[in-house]
């Protein structure tokens, strides 16, 4: 895997006697085999199961080494450490381990964002988003976001920064803000306006002409638009009405974009905005819905031979769904299964929230749905059915208590629910 290929400092061994790439691959192979660890038999102990606590301590030692490596002089070493932490953060719950080290990790991430090259900045931003998800929606997560928000915003809006770093910062900014959105909503407004300043670069000019995108711009615009849309789900009704008027007509024009993935991101965002509009006003009508539906029909049946076959198929599928929803509020429900449970993705809002976590956690999203109280609260799943062995059972209550009692966490849930409340105050 890419992460395991990251080499050590010219093969130099670290203090632990293992080179950085060995450490990286050790941490990852531990996580990939974690699910089977219960059945691993240690022959040296005459067939006794491996001591779970020992395995846990070994993992923590490797993670501590990774955190030390974030401060290394070698960019290659720092990048390998970021990749290892990313793999660990996405595939395990590490709240107890991180709660005591969160400021150290935040400081290291901030340093990588400020001083690292494009690849290091992109990796650090990804780990920022995962750290927020690990810490949950409490004061600790909010504290981390306050430290990291200015630098994530600065890189994202910097036209001279690497496109992959800007794209990763857009995702991290949106996710961290969603998880930590504070009571006053100020962070939410600021983060949304920074994300807007990025994707509105794709909007048509006064003559109605779409700009020609630079290399990599559609991917950056898609990330900014998707994570802006995630934050729109937190907005109160009054703010939402302003956003709908402002953005829907411009987004409709962007359906003509030359990039298939950006067209799809725009289509999904239009569907989400219309759904939120209908949520606060049953009579909500898209201003020029006939033209919109004609455009959507064209995209849902696009047979343009200049486009790659897979792109055409993906586009047709998504735009058929968008068209069905706009015309008759029909949504294709999907069930995501994990362990013995599952969640229904039965609205554009739930799809946007699930897809955002999936983008940040990748294949680890199912593990977090099973065990992470933050995701379980967002999707209405209640406390975990079984405990993740990495969170000692005596401490899970501490995590949940901390999470569910936190003012910031309640604020995020409350903000999300305001969408359903027509009486919501102006933000």
TrEMBL record:
Annotated Acidic residues bias: 49-60
Xref: SUPFAM superfamilies: ARM repeat
Domain Interferon-related developmental regulator C-terminal, first and last residues per copy: 372-424
Annotated spans, Disordered: 1-60
Residue span(s) of domain Interferon-related developmental regulator N-terminal: 28-327
InterPro entries noted in UniProt: ARM-like, ARM-type_fold, IFRD, Interferon-rel_develop_reg_C, Interferon-rel_develop_reg_N
Biased composition (Low complexity): 32-44
Family (UniProt): Belongs to the IFRD family.
Alphabetized PANTHER family for the sequence: INTERFERON-RELATED DEVELOPMENTAL REGULATOR, INTERFERON-RELATED DEVELOPMENTAL REGULATOR 2
Protein name: Interferon-related developmental regulator 2
């Amino acid at each position: 895997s890419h992460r395991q290929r990251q080499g050590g400092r010219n093969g130099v061994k670290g203090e632990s006697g293992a080179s950085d790439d060995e450490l990286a691959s050790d941490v990852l192979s531990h996580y990939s085999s974690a699910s089977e660890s219960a059945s691993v038999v240690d022959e040296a102990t005459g067939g006794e199961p491996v001591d779970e606590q020992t395995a846990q301590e070994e993992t923590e030692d490797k993670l501590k080494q990774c955190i030390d490596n974030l401060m290394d002089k070698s960019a290659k070493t720092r990048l390998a450490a970021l990749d290892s932490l990313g793999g660990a953060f996405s595939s395990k719950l590490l709240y107890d381990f991180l709660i005591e080290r969160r400021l150290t990790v935040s400081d290291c991430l901030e340093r990588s964002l400020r001083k690292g090259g494009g690849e290091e900045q992109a990796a650090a931003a990804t780990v920022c988003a995962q750290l927020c998800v690990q810490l949950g929606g409490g004061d600790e997560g909010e504290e981390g976001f306050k430290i990291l928000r200015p630098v994530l915003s600065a890189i994202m809006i910097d036209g001279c920064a690497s496109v992959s770093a800007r794209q990763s910062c857009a995702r991290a900014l949106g996710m961290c803000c969603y998880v930590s959105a504070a009571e006053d909503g100020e962070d939410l407004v600021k983060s949304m306006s920074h994300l807007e300043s990025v994707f509105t670069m794709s909007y048509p000019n006064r003559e109605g002409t779409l700009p020609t995108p630079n290399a990599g711009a559609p991917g950056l615009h898609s990330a900014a638009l998707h994570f802006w849309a995630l934050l729109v789900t937190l907005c109160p009704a009054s703010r939402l009405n302003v956003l709908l008027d402002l953005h829907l007509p411009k987004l409709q024009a962007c359906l003509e974009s030359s990039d298939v993935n950006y067209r799809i991101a725009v289509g999904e965002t239009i569907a989400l905005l219309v759904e939120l509009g209908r949520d606060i006003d049953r009579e909500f009508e898209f201003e020029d819905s006939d033209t919109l539906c004609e455009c959507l029909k064209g995209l849902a049946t696009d047979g343009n031979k200049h486009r790659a076959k897979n792109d055409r198929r993906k586009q047709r599928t998504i735009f058929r769904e968008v068209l069905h929803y706009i015309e008759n509020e029909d949504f294709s429900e999907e069930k995501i299964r994990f362990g013995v449970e599952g969640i229904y993705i039965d609205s554009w809002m739930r799809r946007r929230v699930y897809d955002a976590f999936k983008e940040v956690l990748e294949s680890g999203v199912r593990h977090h749905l099973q065990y992470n109280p933050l995701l379980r609260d967002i999707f209405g799943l209640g406390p975990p059915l079984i405990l993740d062995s990495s969170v000692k059972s005596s401490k899970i209550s501490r995590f949940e208590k901390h999470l569910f009692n936190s003012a910031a966490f309640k604020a995020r849930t409350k903000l999300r629910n305001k969408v359903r409340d027509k009486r919501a105050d102006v933000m």
